[in-house]
Amino acid sequence: MTRSFGPPPSPADFEALAQAAFARIPEPFARHLDGITVHIEEFADEETLRDMEIEDPFELTGLYHGRSMDSDSVWVSGEFPPRITLYRQPLLAEWCESAVGLEDLVTHVVIHEVGHHFGLSDEAMHALEDQAR
User: Fold this and answer.
1) Is 48 within 8 Å of 40 (Cβ atoms)?
2) Is the sign of the CA dihedral 15, 19, 3, 91 positive or negative?
3) Per-position DSSP letters for 23-34, written without gaps between them
4) For residues 42 and 127, which has the higher predicted lDDT (pLDDT)?
5) Which CATH code for domain 26-72+80-131?
6) Where are the domains of the chain?
7) How far apart are the first and last CA of the chain?
8) CA angle (113 as vertex; 17, 24 as ends), nearest 5
9) What mean pLDDT is predicted for residues 22-31?
10) Count of CB atoms situated within 10 Å of the CB of 106
11) 70: exposed, middle or buried (C-beta count within 10 Å: 0-12, 13-18, 19+)?
């Protein structure tokens, strides 16, 4: 999305950008994404910020909730399916303050959070992001 005056991109716009990012994730990763849901919230709640030791709510743009695949087990039950939450206001602020396009920002956050699903290192997440472009 390009910057223009008018209303900011809606939560539905963010969800569409996130789904487009998911669609670009290559194999063999793509086949393991079933069941991950994406949620859009304006900001992380106070409990989440406190748990992550973050004081400024604009510092958190996304979060993976769930057990990573490298620690999953058939013996684990009763947990919610994995989900990624994108925080709209921090992403909008970063988009306005940087030269990075909103689609690229959302893709970066989605890939990073998907990386947590796989238990990837930051280096591996960057390589996955490069493949998804």
Assistant:
1) no
2) positive
3) HTPPTTTGGG-T
4) 42
5) 3.30.2010.20
6) 26-72+80-131
7) 15
8) 45
9) 84
10) 28
11) exposed
- Only one residue has tokens 């925080």, namely 87
Rounded to whole angstroms, how far apart are CA atoms 113 and 17? Answer: 14
Dump pLDDT digits (tens) for 85-132: 999 999 999 999 998 999 999 999 998 888 877 777 777 777 777 776
**pLDDT for residue 10 is more than 90:** yes
Measured CA to CA in angstroms, residue 54 lies from 50, 51, 60, 93, 116 at distances of: 6, 8, 8, 17, 19
Distance CA 114, CA 108 (A): 10
Model pTM?
0.81
Give residue 80's pLDDT. 66
Q: Which range scores top for mean pLDDT: 31-35, 65-69, 84-88, 126-130?
A: 84-88
In angstroms, the CA 40 to CA 10 distance is: 10
Neighbours of 68 (CB within 10 A): 14
The pLDDT value recorded for residue 124 is 76
